[in-house]
Amino acid sequence: LLKTHVQREQVLYVSSQNASRLSAAFANRLEYSKEEKKIVVTLHNLQQDDSDIYVCAGLLKNSSFLSVNGSGTMVMIKEVEQTDCHHSSWSIYGLTIVVVLLFSALMCCTLYHVDVKKYFQKRKQNSVYEDMSYRSRCNTLVTN
Questions:
Q1: Alpha-carbon distance values, 115 to 121, 139, 142 (Å)
Q2: Are the C-beta atoms of 69 and 61 separated by less than 8 Å?
Q3: How far apart are CA 71 and CA 54, in angstroms?
Q4: 90 close to 97: Cβ distance less than 8 angstroms
Q5: Which residues are within 8 A (CB) of 78 and not within 5 positions of it... i.e. 6 or more apart?
Q6: Is the dihedral of CA 109, 112, 113, 116 positive or negative?
Q7: Full-prediction pTM beyond 0.85?
Q8: Residue 66: how many CB atoms within 10 A of its CB?
Q9: Cβ atoms 14, 20 nearer than 8 A
Q10: Quick one: which of 34, 76, 77 has its CA closest to 1?
Q11: CA 80 distance to own-chain centroid
């Protein structure tokens, strides 16, 4: 794997005996796997300096000529300002907890000031009993 345009350098060399050489600039940032005649290369933690055209080339046996297949792959890294999502997510969690606590306090105060028992007790009917029989009326008459 070669960088060819901006800064010409060998990124990865894998021999037919599975010996490999890796550019120091890509140490701990490049992984590859080899299966028969296929090599899969993965680059991690890309930096602006990694922007270039990458080509896969084969070295012909008993020769110093490189065989390049295709025009390569252009990789362009644009620096983007990263926002720290970790702190903003904690603020959302904190705000949610405060809202829940305030709502709980409001409910506790409301239940404390309202006599909840009277709403759930079976109410007794207000009734007045009056004896309207003849005897009771006779006793209440005023006589001279």
A1: 11, 45, 48
A2: no
A3: 9
A4: no
A5: 48
A6: positive
A7: no
A8: 11
A9: yes
A10: 34
A11: 20
